[in-house]
Design brief:
This protein has 588 residues and is an alpha/beta fold. The chain has 21 helices and 19 strands.
């Protein structure tokens, strides 16, 4: 045992097998590649395999780990002792389950990949010795509760994203887990349930009356004779033809017979059977099919039918619930009060979203019904009354005041407007293309910052909104040579920009219409060669409501250099939003 421990310690001190910066696409290519030399030479076995526990595969183009086990077995003398692996800065979309087969892994570097699902971390919970993990630089880093989720799933790690895990981190993760992750429900299954008709043909001393056998009879037998099934293991199954009726009946009868207030749980039997009432008044009240009434026995009120045979098993008479009480039990006040802290917590935590819902949806709908005007039309009336014509800055301030104090308008806002103005001042593009004019807020910012001789082409789909935007732009003093407004759908206008509107290429593109259309329109701009190399694309609302497919495309296609400006939603700074800045590197 001592010799084996010394051998493991010796392997841990060996330098890693380094295949970084090799542009490797497939794991199988490691066999033909020569590892990078380090400060210390690698020790090898008699078979030529490396005697190390560490493997470095960072800064390659791997997108999966197929045949990883077979390849590692050819490279390492003891692949089962692999304890340190670096897969950072690759194109891995998920955590391959093959990593969980190396139970000695204690350090895994996965930062700088393309993982979009936070639940991928769950796979690593099977590694008992994992102590250090990195995931930053993946899209999952933007998920809410990212660090708390990982620490709650992997409570044994001591270092996460190159920062130590403190005691307070673990307490916070446990609280977050209790508040956000629901425990799994365990379903109880009934085993060894025999056919209800089993043993019915055998003789008995009870006057020939047939009774159920097996586990079902054990549920029904009491000291006073056979009763209806009770408890949480009530064996009631509905036939396919009368499923709705039987479920209603099962709920009502179960609640009336059982002392517990809990509803019965339906469990499958080995055959399709159901319980039905044979009292004529209840048959009429519950609309039982005619074919079931013919199978009634006069000395029983409750029968157990089997849908594939003519046998029926009589139960003893049992009290029936009154009309209108089928499954209509009221919730206990204590249960309702138990949910009160949860409701208060949700209202406090998401109060900003509730404010946005009230202002942007409820109050807007009421004003639309009362005035018959669109929000942009009401804003223009306010601008006409309070703004100075010919002064774009004063008109922008008036729109800001209207949006923050009177009625919410979804436009760029002052904080994102500063980023846009700074980029235009630095780059001074000859032509700017804007998708989504809205009320003309961003259009005024662009036109105001552009140098003389440059122009803006803006596209708006809604004719009524476009009319308001046209009035705001002309009120600010910009003519059609400076700002050209096109009314139409972006996917229909973009293919004709070069032929009909004389737009050769756009040095800056602002996407501000609908986030779900960003990817489609960006690909149209690429296809029609409207983006020169070095062009800037700004995309608003990429985090709220969000454009995940657009962000994934721009990060993985290799034609853009991406930067995300984290900001709050305009006039709601507590709601996280972002402005994506993309630099086009060219089609090659």
């Amino acid at each position: 045992m001592t010799d084996q421990w010394d051998h493991v310690k010796a392997l841990a001190q060996e330098p890693p097998l380094d295949f970084s910066f090799k542009s490797i696409n497939f794991i199988q290519d490691l066999i033909s590649e020569e590892p990078r030399p380090g400060l210390r030479p690698l020790k090898r076995s008699k078979q030529g395999k490396s005697l190390t526990q560490a493997l470095r595969l960072n800064n390659n183009v791997l997108n999966d780990l197929s045949d990883f086990t077979q390849t590692i077995s050819q490279l390492l003398e003891y692949p089962q002792n692999l304890a340190w692996i670096d897969l950072s800065f690759n194109d891995l979309p998920n955590i391959d389950p093959v990593l969980t087969t190396f139970l000695n892994l204690s350090v895994i570097y996965l930062h700088g990949n393309c993982m979009h699902r936070l639940t991928e971390v769950d796979k690593l919970s099977n590694l008992p010795k994992l102590r250090s993990l990195t995931l930053h630089g993946n899209p999952i880093e933007e998920e809410k509760g990212y660090r708390q989720y990982v620490l709650s799933i992997l409570p044994r790690i001591t270092t996460f994203d190159f920062s130590g895990v403190t005691k307070q981190d673990r307490i916070t993760a446990n609280i977050w887990r209790r508040m956000n992750i629901k425990p799994k429900r365990v379903r109880i299954k009934l085993d060894n349930i025999q056919h209800p008709m089993a043993g019915a043909s055998s003789g008995n001393s009870d006057g020939g009356a047939r009774r159920p056998t097996g586990a079902l009879s054990r549920h029904m037998t009491r000291e006073n004779g056979p009763q209806a099934p009770t408890g949480r293991s009530t064996a009631i199954v509905t036939a396919a033809a009368t499923g709705k009726f039987c479920r209603r009946f099962a709920s009502g009868v179960g609640n009336s017979l059982r002392p517990s207030p809990l509803r019965p749980t339906l469990h499958p039997l080995s055959c399709d059977c159901f319980i039905a009432i044979c009292s004529e008044s209840h048959l009429n009240r519950l609309a039982v099919p005619r074919e079931l009434r013919a199978r009634k026995q006069p000395d029983s009120e409750v029968l157990l039918f089997h849908n594939s045979c003519s046998h029926c098993v009589p139960f003893s008479s049992c009290p029936l619930p009154p009309a209108g009480s089928w499954g209509s039990r009221n919730m206990s006040p204590a249960i309702a009060l138990a949910f009160l802290p949860l409701v208060v917590t949700l209202l406090a935590r998401y109060r900003h979203y509730f404010r946005l819902l009230i202002r942007a949806v409820l109050l807007r709908g009421i004003r639309d019904c009362l005035t018959g005007l669109r929000p942009e039309e009401r804003a223009f009336s306010y601008v006409l009354t309070n703004a100075l014509p010919g002064d774009p800055g004063h008109i922008l301030n008036t729109l800001d005041h209207w949006s923050s104090h009177c009625e919410y308008l979804a436009h760029l806002g002052p904080l994102k407007g500063q980023i846009l103005t700074r980029l235009i001042t630095q780059q001074a593009p000859e032509c700017v293309l804007e998708l989504g004019t809205r009320c003309g807020y961003a259009t005024l910012l662009i036109a105001q910052a552009l140098p003389p001789g440059s122009r803006v082409i803006t596209i708006e789909m809604d004719p009524r909104v476009a009319t308001v935007a046209e009035k705001v732009i002309r009120l600010s003093g910009f003519d059609e040579c400076k700002v050209e407004l096109i009314v139409g759908r972006s996917e229909e206008v973009i293919p004709h920009l070069q032929a009909q509107y004389g737009l050769c290429q756009a040095g800056l593109v602002l996407l501000g219409h609908r986030p779900r259309c960003y990817l489609r329109d960006l690909q149209l701009l690429e296809a029609h060669a409207l983006l020169p190399a070095g062009a800037t694309v700004l995309a608003d609302h990429v985090l709220f409501p969000g454009a995940p497919r657009f962000l994934q495309y721009t990060k993985t296609c290799g034609r853009y250099r991406c930067r995300l400006h984290h900001t709050g939603l305009q006039y709601f700074p507590a709601i996280r939003d972002g402005l994506a800045q993309l630099t086009y590197l060219g089609s090659s």
